[in-house]
Amino acid sequence: MSVLPRGLRMLQQFWKMKGLLVLVCTPFLLLPLALSTTEAACAYVIALMAVYWCTEVLPLAVTALLPTILFPALGIMESRNVCMQYLKDTNMLFVGGLMVAVAVERWNLHKRIALRVLLLVGVRPALLMLGFMGVTAFLSMWISNTATTAMMVPIVQAVLEQLLGNRKEFGVAVEMVKIQSRTVSVQQEYQQKSISIEEMADPNIPSIDLNLSTNHSQSEEVISPEDTKAPKQELELEELSDEEEEKKRMSKGLLLSVCYAASIGGIATLTGTGPNLVLIGQMNQLFPQNGDVINFVSWFVFAFPTMLLMLTLSWFWLQFLFIDWNLKKTLGCGLAQSDKEKAAYDALREEHRRLGPMSYGEISVLALFVLMVVLWFTRDPRFMDGWATHIFNAKAEFVTDATVSLFIAILLFILPSEPPRYLCFWRRSDSESRLSRGPAPPLLTWQVTQDKMPWDIILLLGGGFALAKGSEVSGLSRWLGDQMTPLHSIPSWAIAIIICLLITTFTECASNVATATLFLPVLASMSQSISLNPLYVMIPCTLSASFAFMLPVATPPNALVFSSGFLKVSDMAKTGVVMNIIGICCITLAINSWGRVLFSLDSFPLWANITSPM
Question: Acidic residues composition bias: which ranges (predicted)?
Answer without folding.
Answer: 236-245
